[in-house]
DNA sequence: GTATCCAAACTTGGATACAAGTATTGACTT
DNA sequence: AAGTCAATACTTGTATCCAAGTTTGGATAC
């Protein structure tokens, strides 16, 4: 009875807490790439032993967010040009496939879902609510996957997006680009609703490529956060 | 001096050994889905403490190969219909993008690389060397990624392929289908060399879809290895 | 003043001991 | 004989201790 209710919260280990904390610190760039972190320090900070911290480190290591160097030190992983390239290729490939599926399966309800995302996004921009704007961008891309009946595609997009989003925090003048992004969404929605897969993919790829020069600029301005070669 | 030489082998932890061992056991289906494995047992088997085994378990858990249930037991993860669908969608998406790139960038050397793979594969089939046949299939898809100048794409394909390959070990009559697969490869190579991206993608997708009925059959014949719902 | 070398402090890797929860098996009661 | 309950064995989670290697800083020799 009550066990069923207590189980979910009981499942949350110390490891989960620490891993989630570090994940947020790193992906929000409060912990910068190259920063050294110590199992002992984090353990003391949370008032636990090193063991759960160890497990949390292992989890973040498998997410490629930290670099554990045996007997040496553990540090927040720097950006890798190759990793970014791979991530962007994966996301573009998945997004293209999802767009084709969406153009194929879009119905009236789906079209309305896209339009409603865009309208809310225009509202958020007008109100300068940039947090909501980002969340709605999220929703738009998720809607595409749902319309295409490939909801799992968004899991991949989300994972790849988060990798690059950490990087983009370093960028400037994001607000100026938002109207452009909304126009992209409008174009994508139009193509999907028209069932024109190729136009949807073309618009989608153009949308994604807008990040390229931003990333290139960050790579120059924040070279210290980039690894020299892949380790 | 000698330190530099000893470091690479020193980097190999016990954790790596255990994780690799378990990985091979699971992906080769020597350890069947649902089999319960214990940290203590594996530790005794390797003559080490539970600590490195724990770390190895965490690594395999993040690869979704095992399911660690706190205080209960750890077992080899069963197949999930949803996970298979997702994996196949991801691979198809990446492969389609790689094929387009390959058709765009293929030169004489690239064409020769593809033809040589196919020739060797025909030889392997004639000699009934099925191990070599599988390895060459691997090489063919890697060659496509290299020709398309997206080598990292193969890392994704490889990861997704391994997930499904474990499943396909349960299938039967793989040899009968090999000539069909070679003809697919020939068609793909022809389209790539001709620079016809859409034909290459079409042939590639047809190639991948040959697994669909095999998987459907396995799902019926080996229902015990499939999870009821996603956990 | 500079370079070299050694020692101490800090890092993670691994082993052991204990804690907490679950499943199973046995005895006991009905 | 069947069902219930409790004890026991087994699971993973956490804490602590020791081992091994790297780095860093200071002392010493030149």
From TrEMBL, chains A, B:
SMART domains: FCD, HTH_GNTR. GO terms for molecular function: DNA binding; DNA-binding transcription factor activity. This is DNA-binding transcriptional regulator, GntR family. Pfam families: FCD (PF07729), GntR (PF00392). Residues 12-79 form the HTH gntR-type domain. Gene3D superfamilies: GntR ligand-binding domain-like, Winged helix-like DNA-binding domain superfamily/Winged helix DNA-binding domain. Keywords: DNA-binding, Transcription, Transcription regulation. It comes from Poseidonocella pacifica. It comes from the Bacteria. InterPro entries: GntR_C (IPR011711), TF_FadR/GntR_C (IPR008920), Tscrpt_reg_HTH_GntR (IPR000524), WH-like_DNA-bd_sf (IPR036388), WH_DNA-bd_sf (IPR036390).
